[in-house]
Amino acid sequence: MPVQKLKEFLDSHSIKYVTISHSRAFTAQETATSAHIPGKELAKTVMVKMNGTMAMAVLPASYKIDFDLLKKVAGVGMVVLASEREFKDMFPECEVGAMPPFGNLYGMDVFVEKSLTEDKEIAFNAGSHRELVKMLYKDFEKLVRPKIAKFSIEIK
Fold it and tell me: In whole angstroms, what separates CA 75 from the centre of its chain?
């Protein structure tokens, strides 16, 4: 079951979603394989610090962040990858590294890679390394109101 906070939020907005259970996986590409979802259709949440403030960068599992591009689109002087130690306590109901891309529930900005907006649906970790939530992208965008930009490149 997805983390309670996320489930209650989706249910309170009458959002239709499905949960997908899969074998334990830690990287986004392993998760995509385990859940039989193409890597470009599975969204991974990467925690970054922008000028010292925590934010979420959401991009396809088969992509990596271009930090110079993200810095430019965010209009900040510095963007760095956050360490697990820096953010693990921000998501007490989630396994480390499996937080859903709903920064609005945690008081932080969310940046979504433009290529994810081209898919009808979005799938993402639901707080554990064994479960995903899949929902319409337009519902995700309506609820989260992310900043949409091109800030990543496909991993070859």
Answer: 21
3-state SS assignment for residue 152: strand
The single residue listed with the structure tokens 């433009």 is 114
Report the distance separating Cα 26 and Cα 98, nearest Å: 8
Tokens coding 140: 């995700």
Contacts of 113 (CB under 8 A, 6+ apart): 57, 58, 59, 60, 63, 149, 150, 151, 152
Q: What is the pTM of this model?
A: 0.91
d(CA 20, CA 148): 26
Distance CA 150, CA 154 (A): 11
Integer Cα distance of 1 and 152 in angstroms: 30
User: Each residue of 96-130: pLDDT tens digit?
Assistant: 888 999 999 889 999 999 999 998 999 999 888 88
The whole-number pLDDT of residue 39 equals 67
Domains in the chain, please, with CATH? 4-154 (3.90.960.10)
**Residue-wise pLDDT tens digits, 15-36:** 999 988 877 776 777 777 777 7
